[in-house]
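[Meeting: bench + compute handoff]

Bench side (C.D.) handed over the final construct sequence. Compute side (W.E.) agreed to return the predicted structure before the next meeting so the bench team could plan truncations. Sequence as handed over:
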Amino acid sequence: MYHAPWGDAPGVVLDHIRALAETPAAALDTERQAKLASHEAEQQFLQLTPEPWRFFFSELLRLARVYTQLDDLEHYHTTRLNRPIRRAIATLGERLVKRGLVDEPLDLFFAKTAQIDALLIADTEEEQQAFAIAVRESKQAYLAAAAREPAWTPGGDEWLEEHAEGPLKGLPGSPGIAEGLIHHVRGPEDFAGFPVGAVLVSRTTNPAWTPLFHLAAAVITESGGPLSHGAVTARELGIPAVMSVPGCLSRLPQGSRVKVDGLRGLVMAG
């Protein structure tokens, strides 16, 4: 069965709780140490700052922390609405499934608001079938795009030829070296099976994937750069990450052992 890109909400929440509960104590200690180091670095910076500028930079750092927290709060209040909205969409979608207009209830997410509004007042079979065709075409376009490897490659085809053999090369995302077994994650439906200490390999990541980073030894993605979600989160948790590794999902078999060098952007056989 097709899995919607946002996954099953209750199941994803439970997977997140499980992942956090299974986070090794060493990983939590690493995060604590990172925060302490950040605080010490801030104090050292302010001590070295000339007195006339000390208040300015102190306020700048304070505001950066405040607005970062506000961003997290806004994200929380936005995402907490997902479940009731999904329930409403699913209820309407179930009615459309019975009428043969969509294949699965959550396929309604592939319809635009204007299309749904038009369907509610549609009084002809032709208008209803036009809606059904538009939703199926949108879904197929999404599935095709999700299955397609990123077209952008650093250096183009010549770069790929130079790196056809030997270590895989990508963009450095988070420094450090780690070894582990490859584990592919293509979407939320794969979260529950992610083992502690594995190397997370995916096309891309987003905030919903963050609990997996607490379990992973390293991260490799087919897209993204130093400012992508995967790279930033990996740096926060102190694990290596290499981004934009062409074809990593197909070139790194599930269960194979690799060494990840996040500083140099290299993925080597372990």
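W.E. noted at the follow-up: Residues 1-9 have pLDDT under 50 and may be disordered. C.D. will use this when planning the next construct.
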